[in-house]
Amino acid sequence: MGCYRVVQVVAIVSFVLLLPNTHAWGDDGHAIVCKIAQARLSTQAAAAVKKLLPKSANNDLSSKCSWADSLRVVFPWSSALHFANTPKDACNYKNSRDCVDLKTGIKGRCVVSAITNYTNQLLEYGTKTKYNLTQSLLFISHFMGDIHQPLHCGFGSDRGGNDISVHWYRRKQTLHHVWDASIIETEIERFYDDIDDFVDAIQKNITKAWADEVEDWENCRKDDISCPTIYASESVEDACAWAYEGASEGSVLDDEYFLSRFPIVNLRLAQGGVRLAAALNRIFNTKYAAEM
Ligand SMILES: *[C@@H]1O[C@H](CO)[C@@H](O)[C@H](O)[C@H]1NC(C)=O
Ligand SMILES: *[C@@H]1O[C@H](CO)[C@@H](O)[C@H](O)[C@H]1NC(C)=O
Ligand SMILES: *[C@@H]1O[C@H](CO)[C@@H](O)[C@H](O)[C@H]1NC(C)=O
Ligand SMILES: [Zn+2]
């Protein structure tokens, strides 16, 4: 290998190592939610998604599900839209109280309002719209994942566990990252061949173990197209019961924590995927889509 080549390799490797780590369901979590969702789309919704996805996605929604995370630095306004911030130990979600950008204090800016926002934009599909609906699709697909991650609706006081340092087995980690990525990674490492094998296992449970519940997950009250307030409420309840429970600054989280928590993560990934599909099906099955 010539000297120039070595320099090039070192440069590329350093660049990759310097990439900031993302703070949302890791890429795997988002990809899993989107894979589950895309497989459940109606013919109409599948066609609309195919049309809206950028060519580079090759009609694979999961390949673009972390796009919104890559924007957080470029578009600081979008940063607050990945979370809702509940008061310490409240363990419930209230729109008027908790949907706020903590950095600016501006109300109505959180993952709950973002899902409603991008749902409404997508309803303009097939009309002349000022919105970039490709972006609307990628945002809603990402945020439907985030809102199902319990600590994305955790306490504002510790930034959803970002300020709580724990050990994941031997490795130092934030509690937030444990729920974004570590539990999923450890599961795949221990129980599955790869991410697709894991998705298969979740899909089997959607059609068997959880079959009786799936309709409830899909339904919103009245004629709502998505009902993010419900998803956020469930998340903060799980955050209190499972994520914060038994995990404080300096805790060592190992098998005892992992084995009792991974079923919650699996359920949330399944619900995220089922509900993303249900929302997209409702959006694109409206009269607007029929006009295309
Ligand atoms: C709604 O979407 C627009 C376009 O992406 C964005 O500028 C605005 O900040 C969003 N608001 C919320 C609450 O998501
Ligand atoms: C819409 O957004 C996508 C993703 O950011 C971008 O690639 C595309 O060029 C945008 N389309 C228009 C018409 O601006
Ligand atoms: C599927 O359901 C079974 C029975 O409840 C459970 O043991 C298993 O962990 C579940 N797997 C996934 C991936 O959810
Ligand atoms: Zn996110």
UniProtKB/TrEMBL annotation:
<keyword id="KW-1015">Disulfide bond</keyword>
<keyword id="KW-0255">Endonuclease</keyword>
<keyword id="KW-0540">Nuclease</keyword>
<keyword id="KW-0325">Glycoprotein</keyword>
<dbReference type="Pfam" id="PF02265">
    <property type="entry name" value="S1-P1_nuclease"/>
</dbReference>
<keyword id="KW-0732">Signal</keyword>
<dbReference type="GO" id="GO:0000014">
    <property type="term" value="F:single-stranded DNA endodeoxyribonuclease activity"/>
</dbReference>
<keyword id="KW-0378">Hydrolase</keyword>
<dbReference type="InterPro" id="IPR008947">
    <property type="entry name" value="PLipase_C/P1_nuclease_dom_sf"/>
</dbReference>
<comment type="similarity">
    <text>Belongs to the nuclease type I family.</text>
</comment>
<keyword id="KW-0479">Metal-binding</keyword>
<protein>
    <recommendedName>
        <fullName>Aspergillus nuclease S1</fullName>
        <ecNumber>3.1.30.1</ecNumber>
    </recommendedName>
</protein>
<dbReference type="InterPro" id="IPR003154">
    <property type="entry name" value="S1/P1nuclease"/>
</dbReference>
<comment type="subunit">
    <text>Monomer.</text>
</comment>
<feature type="signal peptide">
    <location>
        <begin position="1"/>
        <end position="24"/>
    </location>
</feature>
<dbReference type="GO" id="GO:0006308">
    <property type="term" value="P:DNA catabolic process"/>
</dbReference>
<dbReference type="GO" id="GO:0003676">
    <property type="term" value="F:nucleic acid binding"/>
</dbReference>
<dbReference type="GO" id="GO:0046872">
    <property type="term" value="F:metal ion binding"/>
</dbReference>
<dbReference type="GO" id="GO:0004521">
    <property type="term" value="F:RNA endonuclease activity"/>
</dbReference>
